[in-house]
Amino acid sequence: MAPTALQTGGFVLGLLGAAAIIAATGMNNWSAKDRQGDVVTSVYTYKGLWQDCETTSAGMTECRPLYGLLGFSGTFQAVRALMIVGVVLGVIGTMISVFSLKCLKIGSMEDSSKAKMTLTAGIMFIIAGACALVGASIYANQIVASFMITTNQNYGGGMGMGGMGGMGGMGGMGGMPRYTFGPALFVAWIGGAVLCVGGVLKCVAFRGMLPDKASYPGVAYKSQVHNKPVYDDAHSESGKKENLKYV
User: Fold this and answer.
1) Is-contact 66 51, C-beta < 8 A?
2) Angle at CA 83, nearest 5°, toward 77 and 86?
3) What backbone phi and psi angles, to 5 degrees, belong to 65?
4) For the whole model, what pTM was predicted?
5) Given this structure, which CATH class describes domain 2-221?
6) Residues 74-133: pLDDT tens digits?
7) What are the structural domain ranges in the chain?
């Protein structure tokens, strides 16, 4: 019962985690403009892996697709690649998990085969979750570095107003927008963590799904029986006749 519960729990968590990182990869708000201190008529800007969008105070939204590969930094491309790999592995792991469930009968598939499929799906879930966590962390690190640089430029003195830093929301006076974490980052972090937990549960369930085997299987030995030849009446009569001839 315990291996089945662990396997089912890992499947559910893997399914939820895969759905979360798929949603995070497609979301456009990985980074959002810091709106603290902005006026009501300002434009709200947010960026994703595939589009940059702007929303006005009137509610109109316009997005610009991020085409091409050569126009972006290697770090940005690495984040894209990690999220795509995580999505692919998460989807494949989910499909394998469906066929490896013990409650699902597929022909004459043995328990050992389902156990191996469960282990494979668990490893895929762990790798997919790690890709999502690493990709989101790299992107978040870039946001933090950009935020600190922008804050220093806005407050640090291009206009000789270094004392304005204590006012918090007036960074826009420096002319450079600041960006903070967007909701997609948190979705990617949560989805990656859930995937890793689901993968661990499936790997633990693998040990309990293996069929029990004796360490030293017994071997039955049979003694050899020496059987005497048996002759029928025809052979015996012919033998008697030959003996009479020689007499």
Assistant:
1) yes
2) 140
3) -65, 145
4) 0.72
5) mainly alpha
6) 888 999 999 999 999 999 999 998 888 877 776 666 767 888 888 999 999 999 999 999
7) 2-221
